[in-house]
Specification:
The chain is α/β, with parallel strands linked by helices. Helix content is 36%, strand content 18%. A 5-stranded parallel beta sheet has the order 2-1-3-4-5, sandwiched between helices. The longest helix is centred in the N-terminal third of the chain and has 15 residues. The structure holds 1,3,4-trihydroxy-5-OXO-cyclohexanecarboxylic acid (DQA). 1,3,4-trihydroxy-5-OXO-cyclohexanecarboxylic acid binds next to loops.
């Protein structure tokens, strides 16, 4: 049961491999480690974390709709590579009133040109990128203040 104290943390493709995947770019923390960090801080803030990951674009769209339907306080969204391709995610973010904060471990603007465009960022409330796992914590701080 989601409500105004819940922060949905949605993770897209390949983020299930965090910790193993290109650690020189994404760091050694796993998604479970990040979930633990977020839960500890959320408890202090009086918030709850509901962290999910999917390799399927439609799941992320459905979860964005669910965030609105269940009254989540905010969504932290690391859409992985869908960030740079997905008009469906762009439209889903535009289609809900729940604030969505774009999150990235790396800074896509310092990387390949194809990562410079973000369909998520064009619809999101704001973006936090480039701080590794700390990006998620900073996004949680921002969400708590909304
Ligand atoms: C990422 C950046 C994306 O460009 C990439 O496709 C990812 C991870 C990040 O968190 O740095 O999968 O979203």
């Amino acid at each position: 049961m989601t409500d105004t104290s819940t922060i949905l943390v949605l993770n897209g493709p390949n983020l299930n491999l965090l910790g193993l995947r290109e650690p020189e770019i994404y760091g050694s923390d796993t998604l479970d480690d990040i979930a633990g960090m977020l839960e500890d801080r959320a408890r202090e803030l009086g918030l709850e974390i509901d962290l999910r990951q999917s390799n399927h674009e439609g799941h992320l769209v459905d979860w964005l709709h669910e965030a609105q339907a269940t009254g989540a306080k905010a969504v932290l969204l690391n859409a992985g590579a869908f960030t740079h391709t997905s008009i469906a995610l762009h439209d889903a973010i535009k289609g809900i009133r729940t604030p969505v904060i774009e999150v990235h471990l790396s800074n896509p603007h310092t990387r390949e040109e194809f990562r410079h465009k973000s369909y998520v960022g064009m619809a999101a409330k704001g973006t936090i990128a480039g701080f590794g796992a700390t990006s998620y914590l900073l996004a949680l701080e921002a969400a708590a203040r909304l």
